[in-house]
Amino acid sequence: MAGEVHGSKAEFKVQNQAGTITAIGGGSSQSLDESIDTAEISKFLDTAKNYIAGLSDGTVSWDGNWNPTDVTLFRGIKQMVRTFEFYPAGNSTGNEKIAGSLIMTQLTRNSDIGDKVGMSVSFQLTGALTTTTI
Questions:
Q1: Which domain covers residue 105, as residue numbers?
Q2: Is residue 2 situated within a structural domain?
């Protein structure tokens, strides 16, 4: 069972309006989804489809507790390309760090009579990601 890490160690940082990488607090769920386009290159008489790899793409989603500090940060970076750092297993030596650039595409605040006030944010990746070991 070596290598397992509890999800509570994850960390997400994004560049604020002033250009400083800032940790986002209050998160309860976050994900970085990567995909690769493909183009079909099949031709007549082939017996199976054939493909070539295309461009990479991806999104980041973050859900958590509403707080005015994070709302202010997210509202301040609307329509801006910002850098980010994603630490799926925490920001400790030996762990993975994924970095790149993104654009915020959606900010949602939600209230439920029987639950906490929450918020969620969606981002579109732009450009290539870099993955390093801390």
A1: 7-133
A2: no
CATH number at residue 28: 2.30.110
The predicted model gives 80-104 an average pLDDT of: 93
First to last CA, the chain: 21
Number of domains in the chain: 1
**Which residues are CB-neighbours of 42 under 8 A, at least 6 positions away?**
48, 49, 50
Confidence grade of residue 1 (pLDDT, cut at 50, 70, 90) = very low
Q: pTM of the full predicted structure?
A: 0.86
Side chain identity at 91, as an amino acid letter?
A: N
Once rounded to an integer, what is the mean pLDDT over residues 19-34?
91
Exposure on the CB side of residue 87, measured as CA atoms within 13 A = 21
